[in-house]
Amino acid sequence: MEDPESAGAVPPPGLSSLLPPREFLRSRKGQLLLAESVLSFIIFICYIASLAASFMMAPLLEFLLALFLFFAYASRLNEKFKGVHWPLADFLRCVTAAIIYFAISIAAVSKYSDGASKAAGVFGFAATIVFAIDFYITFNDLVTFLKQGSSDSPEGRKTEDEDSDSDSD
């Protein structure tokens, strides 16, 4: 019996098929989503170990949302499901996450004195910055997305047709 590698056959896909493509990991969006996932998970662990355990739900939800969007963008679900306004959903997620992380980080740093709460607060401020960068970039993508949508509408075509008619006179 021959070894499958020596026969030139491609080995069956295993866990490596679950990994995102390298191109996505090198992209700005991939790196931001990965940073958001990692920071949210670290903050979640810090809040579990701290006296501020009541704040643990926000990082858990943000971790799960960031992880979902990471794999959705990596597997190009945004191109397959056109009915979902991906840039708008991503923008709203980033804005709310930045606001929530900023608020709970201030509360964790000022109200609680244990080290885990302080660490969660510091990581929360870092996550606020990462989410703010992401929502700034996503906002620019959202504006482009909305401009494309308005040019596809009948009103957008009508004004373009009127402009071309007035130019030909």
Automatic annotation (TrEMBL):
It is a multi-pass membrane protein. The keyword Heme does not apply. One of its GO terms (cellular component) is membrane. Residues 149-169 are annotated as: Disordered. Keywords: Membrane, Transmembrane, Transmembrane helix. Residues 24-143 form the MARVEL domain. It is found in: Membrane. The keyword Membrane applies. The chain crosses the membrane at residues 32-50, 56-74, 86-108, 120-139. This is CKLF3 protein. It comes from Anthoscopus minutus (Southern penduline-tit). The gene is Cmtm3.
